[in-house]
Specification:
- Chain A: Belongs to the iron-sulfur cluster assembly SufBD family.
- Chain A: Pfam families: SUFBD_core (PF01458), SufBD_N (PF19295).
- Chain A: InterPro entries: Fe-S_cluster_assembly_SufBD, SUF_FeS_clus_asmbl_SufBD_core, SUF_FeS_clus_asmbl_SufBD_sf, SUF_FeS_clus_asmbl_SufD, SufBD_N.
- Chain A: This is Fe-S cluster assembly protein SufD.
- The structure holds two protein chains of two kinds.
- Chain A is an alpha/beta fold.
- Chain A has one domain.
- Chain A is about 20% helix and about 35% strand.
- Chain A is built from ten helices and 20 strands.
- A ten-stranded mixed sheet of chain A has the order 2-1-5-8-10-12-14-16-18-20, covered by helices on one side.
- In chain A, a hairpin with a 2-residue loop joins strand 1 and strand 2.
- Chain A is globular, with a radius of gyration of 21 Å.
- Chain A starts with a helix and ends in a 9-residue tail after the last helix.
- By secondary structure, chain B is α/β, with parallel strands linked by helices.
- Helices cover about 40% and strands about 30% of the residues of chain B.
- Chain B has a six-stranded mixed sheet with strand order 6-9-10-3-11-12, with helices on both faces.
- Classes of the chains: A alpha/beta, B alpha/beta.
- Chains A and B meet through helix 8 and helix 9 of A and helix 2, strand 6, strand 7 and helix 3 of B.
């Protein structure tokens, strides 16, 4: 049985575990039908030209883990940003871990999607926001069909959330192969500000496939600062579908740090519904071996006087492959748009590949749009300069690559994250950079 | 200290150095002068270990050791320093962090522990004062957006920090106004001891008014065609290079 068939037949079993009378379930049924029709994307589709899911779809994934597993905090502490106080929504093999989590209902709701989907007090928010921005594509449909668990975050207006929220999905390897479909909803009302850190971490080498959907609503003048740390084992794959709907004067920033995993696909979509919106997406990708990271971004400029900033840096070693596909749409009404996009890459090995494709569709005439992509090697003269000062070749290369990716970190607002990422970069580049980062 | 014997070097099949002989002893200052394209910068790069150049014959001995097989960093660890004609911009790495890395890597190569932070700060303060470098300058990205003069001053600051045995200053005077030239030359002179040596590569005599050489060599077509004392530099300044070319060609 292939994975699609397995998922379709598992849906019946899934229905035994959820409230089939809720309006949510109608959405799930529709989504299941759509997925059944469309199936998994393949390389014939333009958006999937350079990323093949074949190698990861052939595993026999468990869709429902059989038993629940507990983890000791001390064993997984290193996957947390543990040196800051934070709210935590933690899942183990797709199941909520109350032991590792720290949720709240104090002024703000930082809790579980399963609760939000069933309890009356969340009904209005769910009705207004759930599945309202997730796009109509087969992987989002698939996630919607099985949507039940994930993080639910609602920040009412005028709240500056006192500490960041960490969402971490662990997989324990209890199943020979596991598929996870977390569903997150983040609603940030007027003038509120939230910082979120998301991570997926497999604890063994048993294959894991995560198809996650996160819907984020940044309402008027809201500020959303989102960090995705992707440093999973090379047996874990992630398809991250994130949709951000922004209202007037809101500011949304997503940083994606991709250092691990077998195959990572980031579908990151911003929709600007209002004026004077700022959307920022930044990424650092450093991979090697046969790893594959694909950034597929969209900014939809719908109204005037908005900005978007994209800055992605990639360093590819060994047989790794990277894809950057950045689409910017500027509607006719979206005059005075400022849209900037940059994608710079270094190929460290002769066998590494990057496919980079800016895609600009501009229908307004009074706009400033720029894009630039570069693919290069390390600058030999810079390398000689560093070596002539006594810095050995490997360290010099590391330092240059560090310098190359470094400016992406300027906009990271949480120092502990900046520190952690810098350390991950140094580790990943295999160098002791020799000074305090 | 440095002994160069019949050195031949080429880049992309083009012979640039065609039999250089040079001996530099501790405590000496040598100036290498010559018209554009004579091979001055190539000589500097070959001594420092730039891999773009193919050494096709001859030897470079540093304290009696053949250094041809050594990488640039290993030569640096043995005390060779090149002040670049065109220092490379490295955005994202501050001058301070760069120097810390360079010093600690050099110490590591010698089997020493990292320099304690306090000592490092003291050294940085001392040497930046010597070069009249503003503290704010040290936290800027290496050479990024530096003026020509700032770059050269920064090169000599690095030299001061690393205290090399053999410093090669490649066209350090180019792009410097008279004040910057004075500061740079003053720095070099203060770093001079009886145990180290300096090779000043320059097109003009101007810098040699400040850093006074013990020997002046004229490079032409990849060979040292004339050597003399500091008065040779004055002669070149007054008469240009043509008479040398004529003398050689004759």
């Amino acid at each position: 049985m292939d994975l699609k068939e397995k998922l379709v037949s598992s849906f019946l079993a899934f229905e035994n575990t959820v409230d089939v009378d809720s309006p949510i379930h109608d959405i799930r049924i529709e989504a299941m039908k759509a997925f059944e029709t469309e199936g998994f994307p393949n390389k014939k589709q333009e958006a999937w030209k350079y990323t093949s899911l074949n190698s990861i779809l052939k595993n026999d994934y468990s869709v429902f883990p059989k038993h629940e597993e507990a983890l000791d905090y001390k064993d997984v502490k290193k996957y947390f940003i543990h040196d800051i106080d934070s709210y935590k929504i933690i899942f183990i093999d797709g199941k909520y871990s109350s032991h590792l989590s720290e949720t709240t209902h104090d002024d703000i709701d930082v809790c579980l999607m399963s609760a939000a989907l069933t309890k009356p007090k969340y009904r209005l928010i769910i009705e207004n926001y759930f599945n309202k921005v997730a796009s109509k594509d087969s992987l989002a449909y698939l996630n919607t069909a099985f949507s039940n668990e994930g993080a639910y975050i609602h920040i009412p207006k005028n709240k500056l959330v006192d500490k960041p929220i960490q969402i971490i999905h662990f997989s324990t390897g209890n199943e020979a192969a596991l598929m996870l479909q977390p569903r997150n909803l983040v609603v940030v009302d007027e003038n509120s500000h939230v910082q979120i850190i998301e991570r997926h971490q497999s604890l063994t080498d048993n294959p894991v496939l995560t198809n996650s959907v996160t819907e984020i609503f940044a309402n008027k003048r809201a500020i959303v600062d989102y960090y995705k740390i992707q440093n999973d084992r090379q047996t874990a794959s992630l398809i991250d579908n994130t949709y951000i709907n922004q209202r007037a004067e809101s500011l949304a920033k997503v940083h994606t740090f991709s250092f691990g995993g077998k195959l990572t696909r980031n579908n990151l979509n911003f929709y600007q519904n209002g004026e004077r919106i700022d959307s920022t997406m930044k990424g650092i990708t450093i991979i090697g071996d046969k790893q594959h990271v694909d950034h597929n971004t969209l900014v939809h400029h719908i109204e005037p006087n908005c900005e978007s900033h994209q800055d992605y840096k990639g360093i590819f070693d060994a047989n790794s492959t990277g894809v950057f596909n950045g689409k910017v749409v500027v509607e006719k009404e979206a005059q005075k748009t400022n849209a900037f996009q940059a994608n710079n890459n270094i190929l460290v090995s002769d066998k590494a590949t990057i496919n980079t494709k800016p895609q600009l569709e501009i229908f307004a005439d009074d706009v400033k749009c720029s894009h630039g992509c570069t693919i290069g090697q390390l600058d030999d003269s810079a390398l000689f300069y560093l070596r002539s000062r006594g810095i050995p070749e490997n360290e010099a290369k590391g330092l240059l690559m560090y310098a190359f990716s470094n400016n992406v970190l300027d906009s990271v607002k949480i120092p502990q994250i900046k520190q952690r990422i810098t350390k991950l970069i140094a580790n990943k580049l295999g160098v002791n950079i020799g000074f305090d980062l | 200290m440095l002994k160069i014997k019949d050195l031949h070097a080429s880049v992309e099949d083009k012979n640039i150095l065609r039999g250089i002989n040079l001996e530099v002893n501790p405590g000496e200052v040598h100036a290498i002068m010559g018209p554009n394209g004579s091979g001055k910068s190539t000589l500097a790069s070959v001594i420092a270990g730039k891999e773009d150049y193919e050494v096709e014959g001859g030897k470079i001995l540093l304290d009696g050791e053949d250094i041809e097989e050594l990488g640039a960093e290993e030569r640096a660890h043995k005390g060779v320093f090149l002040s670049f004609q065109y220092p490379v911009e490295i955005p994202g790495v501050s001058v301070t962090n760069f120097m810390k890395t360079a010093i600690n890597e050099t110490r590591k190569a010698k089997g020493l522990e990292d320099m304690p932070a306090k000592e490092m700060l003291k050294l940085i303060r001392e040497k930046s004062e010597l070069l009249e470098i503003d503290r704010k300058f040290l936290s800027r990205s290496l050479n990024e957006g530096f003026s020509g003069g700032e770059k050269k001053r920064n090169e000599i600051f690095q030299m001061a920090m690393l205290e090399p045995k053999l410093a090669i200053l490649d066209e350090t005077d180019s792009g410097l106004d008279i004040d910057a030239l004075r500061i740079v030359a003053n720095g070099v002179n203060k770093l001079k001891t009886k145990d180290n040596a300096v090779i000043v590569i320059t097109h003009y005599q101007r810098l040699l008014d400040y850093i006074v050489p013990d020997f002046v060599h004229v490079l032409h077509n990849g060979r040292i065609v004339k050597s003399g004392g500091k008065e040779l530099a004055h002669e070149l300044e007054a008469k240009g290079y043509d008479w040398i070319k004529e003398e050689v060609d004759a």
